[in-house]
Description:
Blueprint: H1 2-16, E1 29-39, E2 65-75, E3 85-94, E4 110-120, E5 127-133, E6 136-137, E7 150-151, E8 156-164, E9 167-175, H2 177-181, E10 189-199, E11 203-214, E12 225-226, H3 232-237, H4 240-247, E13 259-260, E14 263-274, E15 280-291, E16 297-302, E17 305-310, E18 318-332, E19 336-349, E20 361-373, E21 378-391, E22 424-436, E23 448-458, E24 485-496
Antiparallel strand pairs: 1-2, 1-24, 2-3, 3-4, 4-5, 5-8, 6-7, 8-9, 9-10, 10-11, 11-14, 12-13, 14-15, 15-18, 16-17, 18-19, 19-20, 20-21, 21-22, 22-23, 23-24
Amino acid sequence: MRTLIAALGALVILLSSAPLRADTAEDRFAAAGYFRVMARPDLQGGDSKLGFWNLYGRLLNEGPYGMLELRLALLKEDPTTNDAWTRVHARVEGGSVSNMDPGRGSLENFRVTQLYAQAGNILLENVTWQLGTLQYFFGDLGLYDFRPATVFFGTVGLSAKYREGPLEVLVGVGDAGFSLRGEEYSTILTGGATARMRFGNHFELGAGGQFYFEPEVEGNRFAPYNTPGIDYEDFVRGEVAESFLQENPGMEDFFPRPVATSSKSHKAIGYLGFGGFGPLIWNNIFVNFTKAHPENFTTEQYMGREYTIYINDFTDERYRLDIGTEMQLRLVPGLLDLNVAAWWGHHFDKDNNIVANDNDRTFMSTVARAQLYMTRTTHILAETSLARETSNNGNLYRAHYDSVFESTNGTGDPRGLQFGDLKTRKTWQGKIGWVLNPMGMGIYSRPSLRLLYGVQYSNQNNAFGNNFIDSLDDFNVFPNQEEHWHHLLALEAEAWF
């Protein structure tokens, strides 16, 4: 990895000697990128983020980030002909900048996320072939920095995209094993397709899907297996080995052997876009229904021995339904723009009806951002968000530092499978500040220099990243604090280049 990053760095230096303009027919090399940097003093012991995640809007809830994308045209494309063309792409990105986060800008926090070759008008006219990484999406929810309608994320393989007039069709096949399994690689075959149709300048409609299959491979310890005869509650408690040996004393060498199986998962996506009517610039609506791919195994330590528990059957019924929309409005041309977004999700696990966790929850959120243009380059930004997250299997959140004593339906239970005294977390955020946009007006005009104040209120105690100690032990020298409000002052810069 270090060698590859060093090689890409050398390529960047070489490219920097050439003009980095918008891509034209004369350009052979092109480079583009993105960065986000900030200083956010957190005087409440937090991690310099206003809340836990982007459900409350990406603004002040994301850390530093950098991305560089390179493109080399080996055989230039001429859009006026059907001649063959080819080019290669590489992208390096990561979320660490020196002195802004615990990673301190180390290159270990960056990786090559995209590397592929494209070729067009070979074998078939109006078809672009892509070999390498295949990620494709219909668009984003910019206020959340979220792409619900995505296929081939983490897939390496071959795709073909046909484009003729308003119609675009994509078909791809590949392997997602390294993406889903990492060092515990097992082949996960995948295939999928999308289609998008544009109706003039005012409507777009898209749909697609993807299927994953992990075959049964006897003898491969990273292939799908099940450990027979185990109880789901023992699995979530991490007590499978303990229960087995309590029922079968002295049978350590006869722990149930795994049984080979196969794994399947899938997703379906949809997209509707429309705009260009009165104050409505554009509105995106995305839908994503996913059956998550099953997990492989977990390990337990008991009586000085390690036991491997294969859990395909306990993790193969996890579903996610996400619906998101974002509307861009020009309320007063040249004076006031407004973006409004909403995100609803229902995540459920048919194997689990006893444990409160993030696999069984329903959430909803709305974010609104207004930008007032004092001058062409000097703006005032104001944003507000409201979110509600509900656990479907009991209490998952703590309203107070001592809520552990009320974690199971109002009573303390150290063996309970609930976490706190709240089933629902409610969070409000507000942000306001001064923005300098050298490129002019627009909520997404970049580069953007911002001085912001942000505030959050949550019914959960300490609902932001922190290093507080939750222990209620009398000898804890770092006593618990109760905080429902969180404040941040931020100086930020964000740019595409």
